[in-house]
Design brief:
198 residues, 10 helices, 5-stranded parallel sheet, 14% strand, Rossmann fold, 5 strands, elongated, Arc Repressor Mutant, subunit A, alpha/beta
Length: 198
Amino acid sequence: MLKSRILIVEDDPIVAADIESLILEQKNYLISGVAHDASNAFDILANRIVDLVLLDINLGTGPSGIDIAKVINEKYELPFIFLTAFSDEHTLTAASELGPSGYLVKPFNDRGLLATIAVAIRNAQSKPKKESITSAFPTLTGQEVKILEFVLIGYSNKKISDKINLSVNTVKFHLKNIYAKCQVNSKQELLAIALKKI
């Protein structure tokens, strides 16, 4: 079963790092990226595969988590969970109108966050969706699917090799086969095709 890929949008680097390490301890999740502002978040959403967004409402200067959620609803149709220190009526009303999959008030505990993530992902998976990597790319081997999954969340060849205990050259060999089977010449072209299919 493919692991769910999570984007963390949190302006406090320490809080973001704590959430990232907690999620990575779980066996069913990968991190698509960590964004500290809206610009980073939109870049990751446009260029990586994401299954769920953890979204801080107050991101300091610039667009807020509410603004990002509006774009997620319009362009990506992804589940998202609001994380916030604010539980006033105005914030709750603005947040609830966007249909989040969860709303956690800081400080939240680890079990509460993990339970909210699990429910959000389960609910999202029960809805009709685009194809899985395996069905979208039926000619790929199991190892190639695994490598493609890491490519789609932005891992470098070195990081992929560390994750699946293969040499960098072996990863490059598999990538060459993936490119040939998908009729592309680069990771960017591969991602563009995957974003349409998956």
